[in-house]
Design brief:
heterodimer; A: about 240 residues; alpha/beta; 5-stranded mixed β-sheet; 3-stranded parallel β-sheet; 6 helices; about 25% helix; B: about 325 residues; Rossmann fold; 7-stranded parallel β-sheet; 5-stranded parallel β-sheet; 7 helices
Chain lengths: ~240, ~325
């Protein structure tokens, strides 16, 4: 589970041009991990068991951990690191090392973080652990030690069966996350959070620069209502040359 | 940079995907700059006969794994084949399309090769013999230029961004058949379930007609389907209309949906909130149809019509029908 800026946030580039400013940003649980967490909680409600959330991040991640505990997780592991490198392979190695000490049947990830959009950690962790990983899933059923997952691909979905323990990365359609009640938010404070120091690994991905995308040249309004339609077709053909 | 450039040339059925040609073209360009070869990898069932067609885009060699078990993307099988080949030829760079398969395969390969992926790149350059990849982050609110420290450099290329170009004269690639030994796996790929008649995915479409909250309800998307069908495009949707249950998530364009870069994007009844904007801002041409002249979409659309979608869109369909009938 990752702590990421809310998707409605405007992103500002730091003066050094190599990172983004996050001081006045509102942070949330990465949306794809909310779908994954909801799936975990639903599996627990159906099959019993326990849901543990694992996060690698700074001290401030406590707020998203409490939120996850309020949303139905039973306990949390916080690998606390203020400046862990922005490198999915390093993150995957640290998470895999931690997971080697934990027993689980189902390992759920978001398909990607909405911050760096790297989309690598889930399959990397699974490869390091030598377990199956089905990415971008929109449906998951578990029975008799086996998972049936639907992974969303271009033009349809692929049905994959995997023997547990297995990893999955959540696509948006997987679940609709619930809201936490005030009572659950209070109760979350009593749930256990295990805080650990992860091994610091060097990052293999170096950011050379961060830039804003080039602005689009200003466009123009061609007119009002149906009268503008023939003008549109004409400019698309003659000026923009896209039809 | 030493070692060939390895390209995963993805197929859909027996045909190469457009992104395979895009990736081979980009590999050819990099290979010229670093004086090395383009080595393509084709995996699938019934794909052998088409392998040499990658010569049109400048492949020097094509390794083919053709087996019934490889008909659909099975991560453990594809990873094993690609990894064995990479270990044999020691590529300097591995390029994959940033499709559902490419995005799944790249990190698996990278972690075994002790490296990392530059994901969903929109530009690659070689500076002082180093590969620099440009990739959008925060859904494209910013662009990162990144360098990878490990070797090989693995990058996935966003579909529809790199242009496939035929080389003259075409190369005659050497074709090599790879034997496929099924590795131990605890995953079984059962079947492909299609979404229906829609042939193209949003990420690969040249023309997208997209609808937002202004469409008013699921039944009204018919007018967008009609326009898309006349123009040979596909229909997309905003987050508001997907969250309302009007359209499936696979149609969603934006930060928690697809990022698209078609030649023409027609936004109908879409206000243009930032999370939508970042998913379509790299379209070549953006047209906005919205009754609210103050809608943010008019701030970044190339052409706008202020008007009711229920009047303008059917009129546009009529006009396009005439246009396509004539041309």
């Amino acid at each position: 589970m990752r702590r990421v800026p809310d998707t409605a946030t405007r992103i500002k580039i730091s003066p050094d041009g190599k990172s983004v400013v996050t001081s006045d940003t509102e942070f949330v649980i990465n949306p794809y991990e909310e779908y994954a967490l909801e799936q975990g909680v639903q599996l627990k409600e159906k099959h019993s068991g326990e849901v543990t959330v694992l996060t690698l991040g700074p001290e401030k991640s406590t707020s998203i951990i409490l939120k996850a505990l309020a949303l139905g997780a039973d306990k949390a592991i916080h690998l606390k690191s203020e400046n862990f490198p922005d490198d999915p392979s390093a993150v995957a190695r640290v998470i895999a090392a931690e997971l080697k000490t934990v027993e689980f049947d189902v390992l759920l990830f978001g398909k990607k973080g909405v911050d760096d959009d790297n989309q690598q950690i889930g399959p990397m962790v699974a490869e390091l652990l030598g377990i199956p990983c089905v990415t971008q899933i929109v449906k998951l059923d578990i029975s008799a030690g086996k998972a049936t997952a639907h992974r969303e691909v271009e033009g349809g979905s692929i049905v994959v069966e995997a023997i547990l323990p297995s990893a999955f990365t959540a696509e948006k359609d997987l679940t609709v996350p619930r809201y936490a009640s005030l009572r659950e938010l209070v109760a979350a404070r009593k749930k256990p959070i295990l805080v650990k120091e992860p091994q610091q690994l060097p990052g293999a991905l170096e950011i050379v620069s961060v830039q804003y995308p080039p602005p689009r040249p200003p466009g123009r309004v061609l007119g009002k209502g149906v009268e503008a339609v023939p003008i549109l077709v004409k400019v698309l053909h003659e000026e923009a040359k896209v039809i | 940079m030493q070692g060939p450039i390895l390209v995963f040339a993805e197929s859909s059925g027996r045909e190469f995907r457009k992104s395979a040609f895009e990736s081979v073209t980009e590999a050819r360009r990099l290979a010229e700059l670093s004086k090395t070869e383009v080595h393509a990898l084709s995996i699938g069932h019934g794909v052998k006969d088409q392998a040499s067609s990658l010569g049109k885009f400048g492949a020097d060699k094509v390794s083919v794994a053709d087996d019934e078990m490889l008909k659909l993307f099975q991560p453990d099988f594809y990873r094993q084949i690609a990894l064995d080949l990479a270990n044999k030829i020691n590529p300097s760079v591995i390029l994959l399309p940033a499709t559902s398969s490419g995005k799944d395969l790249a990190p698996r390969l990278a972690i075994h090769l002790n490296t990392v992926v530059a994901a969903d790149c929109t530009e690659l350059e070689i500076r002082n013999d180093e590969l620099i990849a440009t990739r959008p982050a925060y859904a494209g609110k910013v662009l990162l230029k990144v360098k990878m420290k490990g070797n090989p450099k693995v990058a996935t290329l966003r579909p529809n961004v790199f242009t496939a170009r035929e080389v003259t004269p075409p190369t005659s690639p050497r074709i090599e058949s790879l034997s496929f030994q099924k590795p131990v796996t605890r995953m079984t790929v059962k079947e492909f379930v299609t979404h229906g008649a829609k042939k193209l995915d949003l990420t690969e479409a040249g023309i997208i007609v997209s609808g937002g909250r202004g469409m008013g309800g699921p039944e009204n998307y018919k007018i967008l389907e009609d326009l898309a069908s006349v123009m040979g495009g596909v229909v997309g949707a905003s987050r508001a209309s997907v969250d309302a249950g009007w359209r499936p998530h696979s149609d969603q364009v934006g930060q928690t949906g697809r990022t698209v870069s078609p030649t023409l994007y027609i936004a109908c009844g879409i206000s243009g909130a930032i999370q939508h904007r970042v998913g379509m801002i790299n379209s070549k041409v953006i047209v906005a149809i919205n009754k609210d002249p103050e809608a943010p979409i008019f701030g970044f659309a190339d052409y706008g019509i202020v008007g009711d979608v229920f009047e303008v869109v059917p009129a546009l369909t009529q006009e396009m029908r005439k246009y396509y009938g004539k041309n």
